[in-house]
């Protein structure tokens, strides 16, 4: 879409925009042909004001969607959260899995991620805060293909601490804030179980030290 059509159709007619804040290097419209200066002239033409801001940074990292994507793909969730300005979240519905979880003492809710194109963090185990109905529970989430059980499709699953309800079909969301370890292929289910117990202990220790959602 040509830049001016985008401005006219979406910003002016649909959003009835009055004021736009725009990053110093923003480009938009077909093939990114329009610049901040073009935006300003459209503002004059269509009657809205445009404010240009310089690069913003947090803790030495320039805030950019590219940087956020990079951090997520490296499992750097705390860094990603710090430039997002909020905790990265995964929304989804709890669906049925292979019923192995409860057998090893760690029932894990399988989450069907709501947004099909959602950029997920690197495969691995993370500490999360799960929002279920009106309550919140800390948990340990695994993102990956569960190599211990052979090849499978990618799944997002979570074991919640101090929790024991049937939540199939429930819409929940997870706030993700701490990378714990890589997903690994264990020799046996027993070894996997021992490792998940260690993951659980790590989360409990963090909570008892008061670190919580940091
Ligand atoms: C905290 C946590 C860590 C996990 N880590 C691994 C892992 O390192 N390797 C692996 O193959 N599967 C891992 N899993 C996935 C389990 O294999 C999976 O939860 C189990 O197969 C239960 O699946 P189900 O919900 O379909 O019954 C992990 C699961 C959780 C909850
Ligand atoms: N602490 C818990 N954490 C996650 N899910 C739990 C927990 N306690 C009970 N559940 C329930 O058990 C299900 C997970 O058990 P699991 O044996 O792994 O079955 P499935 O393979 O169908 O996911 C969850 O979907 C949820 O309904």
From TrEMBL:
InterPro entries documented for this protein: FAD_synthase (IPR015864), Riboflavin_kinase (IPR023468), Riboflavin_kinase_bac (IPR002606), Riboflavin_kinase_bac/euk (IPR015865), Riboflavin_kinase_dom_sf (IPR023465), Rossmann-like_a/b/a_fold (IPR014729)
Keywords tagged on the record: ATP-binding, FAD, Flavoprotein, FMN, Kinase, Multifunctional enzyme, Nucleotide-binding, Nucleotidyltransferase, Transferase
SMART domains: Flavokinase (SM00904)
Enzyme Commission number(s): 2.7.1.26, 2.7.7.2
Pathway: Cofactor biosynthesis; FMN biosynthesis; FMN from riboflavin (ATP route): step 1/1; Cofactor biosynthesis; FAD biosynthesis; FAD from FMN: step 1/1
GO biological process: FMN biosynthetic process; riboflavin biosynthetic process
Entry's family note: Belongs to the RibF family.
Name assigned to this protein: Bifunctional riboflavin kinase/FMN adenylyltransferase
Organism this protein belongs to: Elysia marginata
Record lineage: Eukaryota, Metazoa, Spiralia, Lophotrochozoa, Mollusca
